[in-house]
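JOB MANIFEST
job_type = single_chain_structure
chain_count = 1
residues = 430
[input]
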Amino acid sequence: MNGTTMNGTTMNGKAMNPLRNDCFALPPGVNWTPVEEALERLRSRLHPVVGVDRFVSLSQVSGRILASDVYAPRAHPPSSNSAVDGYAFAGPLTEVPCALPLVEDRSAAGEPYMGYVPEGHAIRILTGAVIPAGTDTVVLEEDCEVMDGHLHLNGTLKAGANSRKAGEDIKAQDRILTAGTRLTPTQISVLASVGVESVDVHQRLRVGVLSTGDEVKPVGSVVTDWQIYDANRPMLSALVAQLGYELVDLGHVLDRAEDVKAALERGAEQCDLILTSGGISAGDEDHVSKTLKAHGEISNWRIAIKPGRPLALAMFQGTPVVGLPGNPVAAWVCALRFGAPAMALLAGGEWFEPQGYVMPANFSKNKKPGRSEMLRARVRNGQVEVFGSEGSGRVTGLAWSEGLVELDESAQQIEPGTPVRFIPYGSFGL
């Protein structure tokens, strides 16, 4: 991540484009925050924090985020060309039947006809070949007949038929991609089609993942009956990697203030953003929130969402920290709903609202008012079904699901056939 930032300064490889220490603070008296309000408040307080890599070749930019607009150095297509195999002539063709004398040559892709086709004549042309001077219209070879050196036509054609005009797709100096775009194979194809060799891209966002808790043990450890394996750190690490960011594994720490502080210090030095799981409430052993309060700036947001509710947003030594709940399902929901768009914005991309699809439910639910609910869900036979348990510790529901059903704060009586909003995981960039 070393390099030059958009402002031209770095320190220890970290972009110096800091967030305000109080950027996550809520107004006095705000306790329970609706999801949409929380998302908008988060969006308004963030901005890109990464630097820029200049002139990165197309072979190296897949998944990277554009740092500047890209303009086409040439048109696409650069010349008018044929869309079919056939014969080229000057259109329109209105008086039929007719016979046009053929020029004794052809125009092929990579071998254009360099001469001029006289008025009232035609020439053999192949798909993708440049339209010769003196012509503008192409007839399909199966719609005509060649006899005695003449092209025989029985049907009318409008001028320009079966031809692609120069620049009809992209004109020279058109803006073809905008800053903040995450580059995919199809977008890289557009860049290559007009001869763009390299682009400026944001450096990859470095995201640290830290797991906490005395009861939590890394996979492979010896455990007792009162201990559980750490599901969150592998899950969140895979999420970070799949979203295209640089993973910094900060490991697992026990519920010890000094250990938590040391891990956060490592994260602040190495990362642009830190994701933690567990220890963010107000209990005796919630040392993540205690440490952030003692040595940083923290806002404990009580989000009106199930699962999730407690979400810690903090600044620690200049680095933003997103403190996720400890239960895996709640951590997953909050990481997607809040973390994914926040990371996109910090990385130089665009904040996004995941695309949802209204589909009929295949379940029943009596939802009380006052908070949003996110249900693990999948689509089968054109209907949305949800996992049998809403418990935030039921990890099997994560593997079972293919997305989330989002129910807003209003009271709702859901029956089979009721329209609900289904958000596939792909809408979060997965």
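[summary]
The CA atoms of residues 298 and 314 lie 4 Å apart.
The longest helix spans residues 328-346.
exit_status = 0
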